[in-house]
């Protein structure tokens, strides 16, 4: 299971359990809360009415004769989103023995209520209240009874009970519970969306980081992802810094080893020629050894210059300043740069350009150097008097620049080693290059998100192809 999904599930589990617990608590507390409020109101009402009827009860005639008319009134009152259309108080009064002497609903007149808790406890000077179902097994038929003593001085002479069905406030309970569940569900949905957004952000950042690590492991050009000023961004920068230090140390050791190996031959040739020049010799031999020193020195300079250029692009992880480049103009410039070499070798270039111009985003100087290296190789292996074909074409999302010569082609043993540093094949006449041109082209292609390949052409000779991505159309 991916880490983003694990975090999302863990987050939602915690939020879900917390929300479920709170919802259960709130929903469970709504009904008792409403009942407590109702009981509080009934206590006030019972005490008030008990005080009102005390004087009449002392004379044996309970008041409240007009209460019967109270329940017959037509009302329509909207309370907290619930419409009330019925008045449902019931009031009854018992004497000192618990016998009902007044009942606003005419349900229990003359009955002995002394065993009911509301009357029994009140007659003992305690708080009397009860909840009783009108229908057995049906909680919604419960009626709440709250009693208050009717006093003659300090003596209790009767009990007044106010009753109200719980069903009359059940609508408020149901409405409150429904709102709590709705808001709780909305909270869970919002929490899930927030969790999804956080998990997406984290998974996206980790994917970018893993892609960078995979590119580094594969030896590809890789720039650390911009992940902001957070822990993951700091981790990405730390990985990049560690990679730079480790690669820099290994690269420097390898570079010094290969450079020392490659400079041995020209240094030995210069040393030998210089020692011979210290002796007396004919003018022609003197000139020959002097030319050898100059050519070997030029070879060293070329080797160092090309090696420095290669080092620069190998250590570069991305383009510093990419700009739109017209490839047809770039190819014409590369051909113009090689004019003296083409003339010296008596080689011509056939330039094939597409009708519609092609543009890429890149570094013009690096691409010019890379294409110059490819053309230099083609000129070096092309037979005198032959023609090199330099073609530009679109291939799907890429622009492909191909350079084809009619030389001897690539021998099978060398095909896998062409892009090795310092590896080169002898050119016609025995001359050898530095072996740094193709590695340089490969690095430049990678910096531009492209690739380079060198293969034998079907019609003979060698074909080098540089593939560069075209900008996406808006």
TrEMBL record:
GO molecular function, one term: protein histidine kinase activity
Principal place of residence: membrane
Membrane topology classification: Multi-pass membrane protein
InterPro entries for this protein: HAMP_dom (IPR003660), HATPase_C_sf (IPR036890), HATPase_dom (IPR003594), His_kinase_dom (IPR005467), HisK_dim/P_dom (IPR003661), HisK_dim/P_sf (IPR036097), Sensor-like_sf (IPR029151), Sig_transdc_His_kin-like_C (IPR004358)
SUPFAM superfamilies on file: ATPase domain of HSP90 chaperone/DNA topoisomerase II/histidine kinase, Homodimeric domain of signal transducing histidine kinase, Sensory domain-like
Catalytic activity: ATP + protein L-histidine = ADP + protein N-phospho-L-histidine
Record bears the keyword Cell membrane: yes
Pfam families recorded: HAMP, HATPase_c, HisKA
Keywords: Cell membrane, Kinase, Membrane, Phosphoprotein, Transferase, Transmembrane, Transmembrane helix, Two-component regulatory system
TM annotation in the entry: 6-27, 185-203
Domain spans labelled Histidine kinase: 258-472
EC number: 2.7.13.3
Superkingdom assignment: Bacteria
Domain HAMP: from-to ranges: 200-251
PROSITE patterns: HAMP, HIS_KIN
Subcellular locations according to the entry: Cell membrane
Database matches in PANTHER family: HISTIDINE KINASE, SENSOR HISTIDINE KINASE YKOH
Protein's name according to its UniProt entry: histidine kinase
Gene: creC
